[in-house]
């Protein structure tokens, strides 16, 4: 009988120790989640602010199409700044095409860059980007204060910037649409803001 009591006490101590360990692990998982919370597009403070109307740019694409960036209309635009020499830009092109196809009911994709026309035409042909208008405009890049690539700006049908930032992966690209849907400047600003408890 004494052995049974000792075994029961040891079992209780073991269960209590396991409960403490599970609690400590759950707390560590919570801390880890906070540290690696979703990171949206890396928004910069330069260029037109989110919610600000952008200057209209009437441009001609490499294939001769007329492109009006920031014009009022029924559709939104995603202006994606890239360069033929940017390796991250090249990596994102299939993702960009996929997202543009998925959002085609309300969104037009405009590719933008500046520099040598021939190099960009070769790039468009090699990467099969001819379904999207590709504009070369130093003024457009300066208006958005694009200093690093790849960079994207989501402009609504009223010509207002809805989201913008540096894009390095699919998650950051989709964060522009999430920010628009949530009505916030960026996913990071949404995560950093206090939210009411449910």
Automatic annotation (TrEMBL):
Which compartments does it reside in?
Membrane
Q: Which UniProt keywords apply?
A: Membrane, Transmembrane, Transmembrane helix
The protein's name: Methylamine utilization protein MauD
Q: Does the keyword DNA repair apply?
A: no
Function (record text): May be specifically involved in the processing, transport, and/or maturation of the MADH beta-subunit.
Give a yes or no for keyword 4Fe-4S in this entry: no
- What residue range is the signal peptide? none
Encoding gene, per UniProt annotation: mauD
Organism annotation = Bradyrhizobium aeschynomenes
Pathway the protein takes part in: One-carbon metabolism; methylamine degradation
């Amino acid at each position: 009988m004494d052995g049974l009591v000792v075994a029961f006490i040891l079992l209780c101590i073991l269960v209590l120790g396991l409960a403490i360990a599970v609690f400590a692990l759950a707390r560590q998982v919570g801390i880890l989640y906070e540290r690696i919370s979703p990171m949206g597009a890396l928004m910069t403070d330069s260029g037109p602010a989110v919610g600000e109307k952008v200057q209209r740019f009437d441009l001609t694409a490499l294939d001769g199409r007329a492109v009006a960036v920031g014009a009022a209309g029924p559709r939104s635009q995603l202006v994606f700044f890239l360069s033929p020499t940017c390796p991250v830009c090249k990596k994102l092109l299939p993702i960009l095409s996929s997202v543009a196809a998925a959002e085609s009911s309300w969104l037009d994709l405009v590719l933008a860059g500046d520099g040598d026309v021939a190099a960009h035409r070769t790039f468009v042909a090699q990467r099969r980007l001819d379904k999207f208008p590709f504009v070369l405009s130093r003024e457009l890049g300066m208006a958005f204060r694009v200093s690093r690539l790849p960079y994207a700006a989501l402009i609504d049908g009223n010509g207002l910037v809805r989201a913008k930032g540096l894009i390095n992966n699919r998650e950051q690209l989709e964060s522009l649409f999430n920010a628009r849907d949530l009505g916030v400047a960026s996913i990071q600003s949404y995560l950093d803001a206090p939210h009411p408890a449910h």
